[in-house]
Amino acid sequence: MSKPIVRVENIVKVFKKANVRALDGVSLEFGAGIVYGLLGPNGAGKTTLIRVLTTLLRADSGYAEVAGVDVAADPTSARTHIGLAGQYAAVDEYLTGRENVEMVGRLYNLPAKEATKRADEVLHNIGLAEAADRTVRTYSGGMRRRLDLAASLVGRPQVLFLDEPTTGIDPQSRLGLWDIIRDLVAGGTTVLLTTQYLDEADQLANRIAVIDNGRLIAQGTGDELKDQMGGSVIELHVGDEVRDQAIEALTGLSTEAAAFDQYRGSLRLPAPDGSQTLLNVVRRLDERSIAVQDIALHKPTLDDVFLTLTGRGAAEAEAEAEKVTTSKRRGPRGRSN
Amino acid sequence: MAITSEKVERARISPMHAAKDIAVITRRNLLRNIRLPQLLIFATVQPVMFLLLFNYVFGGAIGQAIPAIAQGKYINWLLPGLLIQVAAFGAGQTALGLTEDLSKGVIDRFRSLPMARSAVLAGRTLSDLIRNGFVITLMVVMGFVMGFRYQTSFIGFVAGLLVAMMFAFALSWIMASIGLAVKNPEAAQSATFLGVFPLVFASSVFVPTQTMPDWLRTFAEVQPITVTTNALRGLMLGQEALAEFGPGINPVQALADAPSVHGQVLMSLLWSIGILMIFVPLSVRVYRRTVG
Asked: Rounded to two decimals, what is the model's pTM?
């Protein structure tokens, strides 16, 4: 890898009032031209890390560098290289889309004419050319997020920080935003995005880091993470009386034997070949005339990632973060399937 | 690494650059004023309503109890005071505007941009100054329609307006600090209301302070709203406006004992400058901490 465009070394940030170690020694680095995905539940420290990197927050200790600039020592220079679209669309309701973007362009120190030209360009690229002269009050939630993104792009940032860019918007707008982000990267922008959705990180990010309790607990490509989790899982419900029969029937179809999950009352087995494994399972059960009440193929979710990596689900991790504790996470419990 | 090792920014923002940023933010805030009809309506209808209500409801009764220089017309006495009252209440808009920007993440965006740190606050107080100028102009026009006439000179009258604007600008900075400290719009509104309301009434804005009990009068006469109101009345109506009057009071002696117009103008300006010297740096500090 060439010189990293973002470099973070052992960053610690404690919110003293709440007694939370929001970042507990985070280190990461990546080179230009990729999408780096930061995956974790609410309260894991994603936003705090973004705020440190975008100069909104000072870390207690550690070092952070964006585009070769120490963000703590020279925030003004760092700001010329970055764009930020936060969790909420930080756009002005009473200005038009164009006025919003132009204003940010001016604040990136573009000359007035250049700001106008650049605003036209990004609004066009982001599909808001037609709505550009309407006040933002008339925009939908998805349009506001796109406008926010347009504003963060107007200064041609080297690194774009997107904090949960698709949280709270409808599925269609979400797909639209994904396309825009892909186009940006194709155009050479480096993106650091945070998300709570494994599929989003998987779809967009070349590299993913999983964050929990202010620590990175795994890093790799989407495939590497999924390999770690054993990929998809088949979950099926059969009558209690035929359960053992079913387990026996499924022997050899997967990497492991089917296991009974008491908590869910279902049988689970890994599906290394995805839907092909599912077909084989259905066929085998049919041959043996074992009645299936319900069967589904589950792709791994953030919850599975957390279960694998920490022994507890994402929702639990979130609840724990909300409880404002600084205790270290418990050892892995392992999974039942 | 200490969090307070703040001043190590290597890249500097030039004064020209900062001026441009302030202009951009000021323009944005003003556009907002124009596009958000409620803001403009409340900014204009409310003061005009005060002017009408106080003049026509209380004017008859109070008109007898004001210095002769007002020529028995309460509007002459009232308008300079109401300009200050409006400036005081209008300053609350500064707190409100900042808290709204804070809660909507707009200030986060600004802070992630390579712009002057001071521009958000300066742009806000400057746009509020311009808005205040607009409201003051409207009230003066309305006042003239209702019979207000300055008794000194046009220059004195304009000087009075400038003193009012200066005071309004200083108050904006107090409200900026309060807004940034309390952070949410509703709290900012109650905080400013609670602070401003007693000050406006315990002053010479509506009635002369001479009828107040001694303890209140002592307070009323030194507090900035009275001083500034007196400065305006002195500049617009003349020295006589500041003298005690009434049965049993010798007008010549009272005039000689009255605070001088120049003194009141000077005191008002000192108040404004003093407020700015404390609250500009304080706002900047609270701003850094609030969003940091």
From this structure: 0.81
